[in-house]
Each structure stands twice: as C-alpha cells, then as structure tokens.
Amino acid sequence: MDIVKELLGGSRLALSRTITAIENEHENASSIMRELYHHTGHAFVLGITGPPGAGKSTMTDKLARAYRNMGKTVGIIAVDPTSPFSGGAILGDRIRMNGLTLDEGVFIRSMGTRGSLGGLSHKTADAVKALDAFGKDIIFVETVGVGQSEVDIVKAADTTIVVLIPGMGDDIQAIKAGILEIGDVFAINKADHDGADKLQAELNMMLDLDGLKFDWRPPIQKVVANQGEGIDDLVKLIEKHYAYISKTGKLAQRRHDRTKTELLELLNSSIGTYVTKHIVDTGRINKCLQDIEAHRNDPYTIVHQLMDELLK
Amino acid sequence: MMEKRIRVLVAKPGLDGHDRGAKVVARALRDAGFEVIYTGLRQTPEQIAEAALQEDVNVIAMSILSGAHMHLFPRVVELVREKGMKDVLVVGGGVIPESDIPALKKAGIAEVFTPGTKTSDIVEFIKAHVK
Ligand code: B12
Ligand SMILES: Nc1nc2c(ncn2[C@@H]2O[C@H](COP(=O)(O)OP(=O)(O)OP(=O)(O)O)[C@@H](O)[C@H]2O)c(=O)[nH]1
Ligand SMILES: [Mg+2]
C-alpha cells in the first residue's frame, strides 16, 4: 500500500518509515515529500537548544506532558551528535522521555547529525513536515547548542527556547554570540543549583543591551525541569510569544523566509546533482581539466560556457 | 545519494538494574558505526516495541542479567511482529543459562550472547544478519 496514504491515515509505522526515507535520502523520499507537502503548515514548531546536559530532554518531556494535558498532540525530533570518528552515535534523549512512549498522542524520533554539513537542517525540516502532515499539533526539535548547524535547525522553528544552566562561568560570554540572537524565550534550568539568580542578572543585562529584538524582549524563566518546577510558567511564555508572532505577522514572515531558504536549498542541491550527472559522471570533466592544465582554456571561461549550455 | 545506517535499540527490559553490559554493548555498536538508541533501565516490553517502531530500528538488542529473559524476550518479539515490523532483528544477552537458549531462538531471538562475549562478535553477527 501507498506509504503516504498510510501515513495520512494515521499509521505510525508509515510515519516512521517516511522519516527513515528522509534520513537515508532514499530515492522515493522526494516523491513522498511532494505528496505530504500539501498536508503541512498546521503544526506549531518549537525549537529547544542549549549546551550539552543542560536538561533539554527533561524539559521537552515536561513541556510535552503540559501540552498533552491541554489536549494537543505532540511530535518530538531529538538530535544528538554523530561521532566524527566512527560515524556511529548514541542517541540518548529518549531516556528522559520514556514516560511518553506509550502515549499514542506522542511520537518521538531520534536523529544523529551524521556529519552532514548543513544537510541535517533540511532533513530535520522534512522530518518535521512528516510529523506535521501526520497531524501533530506541536512539534519539538531538540538540538545541542554548540555550533552553526544547530542554529540552522532552530530556524525551522516558530519559537525557540534557549536552555542555560548556572555554573557555566565565563562560558556565557562565549555562548552569547550565537545563542542570544536565536532565543525567543530563555529558560534557566537547574535553578535548584547555586548561581541561577546571578545568571539571570547577567542574562538580563545582555538582553537589555541587545536592542535588536525591537518589540519582543525575550523573557527569562527559571526552571527545575526534573521536578517540573516553572514548567507551567514556561508554557505561558511560549504561548505569549506565539500570540505575539501571530498577531504581528512575524510568524507569517518567519515561515515565508523559511520557505524561501528551503526552496533555494532544494534548487541548489538539484542543480548540483544535475551538474554531477552531466559533467562528472559522463567523464566530460576530464576533458575540461586537460584543457585547463595545458592552458588551452581557463576555469572561468569553462564555467561560463557550461552554465550557458546546461541552463539553456 | 543513499546514506544507510544501521539503527539499533539497546534496551533493558524488566526491573533488572545491571546496566554495565548494555552500556558496553551500546558503545561498541556506536564505535562500529551504528546509530544506537539507548532507552535506559526498566522498560516494559510494550515500551520497547513502541520505541522500536518510532525509531524504525533494524535491530532490537536487549540485556537481562536477572533471570527474567524467558518471559520478557519472547514478549517483545511478539509485540514487534504485531506492529508489522517483520524484518527487525532481535538479539539478547546477559546472564542466560545455555539450556534456555534453544527455546529463546525458537521464540524469534536470533542470537543470545552470554558473559565473556567479545563485542566484535556481536558487531559481526549484526552486520551479517541485519536486513
Ligand atoms: C556487577 C554486578 C552487579 C552490580 C551491577 C552494576 C551495574 N550498574 O551494572 C551491582 C553490585 C549493583 C549488582 C547488584 C545485584 N546483583 Co549483580 N552482578 C554483577 C556481576 C558480578 C557482573 C555483571 C557485569 O556488570 N558484568 C560485566 C558486563 C560487561 O558483562 P555482561 O553484563 O555479562 O555483558 C556481556 C555479555 O553478557 C553480553 N551482553 C550482555 N547484555 C547484552 C545485550 C545484548 C543485546 C548483547 C548483544 C549482548 C549482551 O555482552 C557483554 C559483553 O561481553 C554479575 C556476575 C557475573 N559474572 O555476570 C552479578 C549478577 C548478575 N548479579 C546477581 C544478583 C543476584 C544481583 C542482586 C540481586 C544482588 C542482591 N541480592 O542485591 C543485585 C540486583 C541489582 C538490580 N537492581 O537489579 C546475579 C544474578 C543471578 C541470576 N541471573 O539468576 C549475578 C549473576 C551474580 C550471581 N552469580 O549470583 N550486581
Ligand atoms: N539538579 C537538576 N538536574 C536536572 C534538572 N533538569 C535536568 N536535570 C538532570 O540533568 C541531566 C541531563 O539532563 P538531560 O535532559 O538529558 O539534558 P540534555 O540537555 O537533554 O542533554 P544532551 O541531550 O545530552 O545535551 C539529567 O541527569 C537530568 O536528570 C534540574 O532542573 N535540576
Ligand atoms: Mg538531550
């Protein structure tokens, strides 16, 4: 039977197999996405990022329960790093979410970064679309916040929560650059540890200096995720941000920008594949290389000629 | 460009708290290039089967040292097949008497690995039998 029909009909196995096809860049992935696309756009996508061990998974678990209690269905994509040495990974986020496994209104999927440069962001975005088409009301994307690719993934989100913890010392200075800009809401987790107030004060100062955000000054919430403290207040802030971006048209703008980025990425990668097929696989590139090395021609002219020919 | 990767769920069913073996196996599989989804202690067969479905794993690897394997291992196989995952390879390990192994294999556990097993043997077995 048709996997798309099954997914839309509510088969969790079909949803799961679809995400595998996306991850493995299976040859039928793009035809699946083509059909699913028209069923997307309904879910609210929440990004959760922050340093390793900050409590992102524990918080996701608690937030997911809160949304379940509000009657919403939940999808979760949890991303962990792939080892650059073996290509393998231990994906451990589920350990904190075991209590959600048997709730039929929740679907959790772990993904490894698989060392792809930027590639993960489109795979994650497509996995989010699969969950969206499946009918999930809210989709969480958990990533480790230590680099550019994570920032990219979070661009797939409507609202992003940055989780910080006390005791990071001067690290907050280092984190500042990438992470301050992407946070719509900040959660100071492990507020049961010393230093939460100090971190909050420092963060407040930085956010006040950072005049970039205009009319939305990212709020800060103290949380003790493993005990569920502060979760209800965090949900209120998330809802407030959602209301704000909906009302001001910023949500539509974010989604517009996202569609544009995705379209360009897709186009670029298709052109790349096309070029490989016509220039590399046919061996034509060898003739070009010979010409360049013998100084009969130069790379700039050749690219110009090939572009004219290929894009005619 | 197809990028396939073997995905393995490493799980500890039942109330057994011995997790060293499971962790050793999880790390060995990661180092062999597999994606390991580790779900930690005290999983029911229902949780293991559902996690296997959501993660679309190729292999379920369960560890038991408490003696409850005769009930828990076959139950997971049963549930996984009910969910329509026909191809998933199920293996087990831990403190398991030789005399129990034939019955476990009959119940659909592809192989059972007892104390002293070299992790490279586990990796080889999975590579040879995964679908
Ligand atoms: C260390 C240990 C403990 C530690 C556990 C620490 C931990 N976090 O894991 C502690 C001290 C906590 C402990 C406690 C208990 N233990 Co104890 N423990 C052991 C001991 C000595 C070694 C186990 C071990 O870690 N081995 C090292 C690892 C790497 O080896 P492994 O687990 O066997 O794994 C290998 C293979 O089996 C295989 N494998 C294992 N799992 C898997 C899974 C897959 C998928 C695959 C492919 C392969 C595989 O590959 C691994 C690599 O070779 C064993 C005796 C023994 N020789 O096995 C008793 C033993 C397991 N314990 C036993 C008992 C009874 C207990 C207690 C009930 C004691 C008590 N009365 O309090 C408690 C219960 C704890 C609990 N909550 O469940 C009994 C179990 C008896 C039984 N099965 O009928 C044993 C067998 C001792 C004995 N001879 O009586 N224990
Ligand atoms: N004291 C304290 N511990 C917490 C709190 N929240 C989570 N933890 C613990 O912190 C550890 C890490 O939690 P996770 O939720 O796995 O953190 P994470 O950010 O998802 O970790 P990675 O995905 O590995 O980056 C676990 O042992 C949690 O139980 C908290 O508020 N206070
Ligand atoms: Mg995590």
UniProtKB/TrEMBL annotation, chain A:
<dbReference type="GO" id="GO:0005525">
    <property type="term" value="F:GTP binding"/>
</dbReference>
<protein>
    <submittedName>
        <fullName>LAO/AO transport system kinase</fullName>
    </submittedName>
</protein>
<keyword id="KW-0808">Transferase</keyword>
<keyword id="KW-0378">Hydrolase</keyword>
<dbReference type="InterPro" id="IPR052040">
    <property type="entry name" value="GTPase/Isobutyryl-CoA_mutase"/>
</dbReference>
<keyword id="KW-0143">Chaperone</keyword>
<keyword id="KW-0418">Kinase</keyword>
<keyword id="KW-0547">Nucleotide-binding</keyword>
<dbReference type="Pfam" id="PF03308">
    <property type="entry name" value="MeaB"/>
</dbReference>
<dbReference type="GO" id="GO:0003924">
    <property type="term" value="F:GTPase activity"/>
</dbReference>
<comment type="similarity">
    <text>Belongs to the SIMIBI class G3E GTPase family. ArgK/MeaB subfamily.</text>
</comment>
<dbReference type="InterPro" id="IPR005129">
    <property type="entry name" value="GTPase_ArgK"/>
</dbReference>
<keyword id="KW-0342">GTP-binding</keyword>
<dbReference type="InterPro" id="IPR027417">
    <property type="entry name" value="P-loop_NTPase"/>
</dbReference>
<dbReference type="GO" id="GO:0016301">
    <property type="term" value="F:kinase activity"/>
</dbReference>
Automatic annotation (TrEMBL), chain B:
<dbReference type="Pfam" id="PF02310">
    <property type="entry name" value="B12-binding"/>
</dbReference>
<protein>
    <submittedName>
        <fullName>Methylmalonyl-CoA mutase C-terminal domain/subunit</fullName>
    </submittedName>
</protein>
<dbReference type="GO" id="GO:0031419">
    <property type="term" value="F:cobalamin binding"/>
</dbReference>
<dbReference type="InterPro" id="IPR036724">
    <property type="entry name" value="Cobalamin-bd_sf"/>
</dbReference>
<feature type="domain" description="B12-binding">
    <location>
        <begin position="5"/>
        <end position="131"/>
    </location>
</feature>
<dbReference type="InterPro" id="IPR006159">
    <property type="entry name" value="Acid_CoA_mut_C"/>
</dbReference>
<dbReference type="GO" id="GO:0016853">
    <property type="term" value="F:isomerase activity"/>
</dbReference>
<dbReference type="GO" id="GO:0046872">
    <property type="term" value="F:metal ion binding"/>
</dbReference>
<keyword id="KW-0170">Cobalt</keyword>
<dbReference type="InterPro" id="IPR006158">
    <property type="entry name" value="Cobalamin-bd"/>
</dbReference>
<keyword id="KW-0479">Metal-binding</keyword>
<keyword id="KW-0413">Isomerase</keyword>
<keyword id="KW-0846">Cobalamin</keyword>
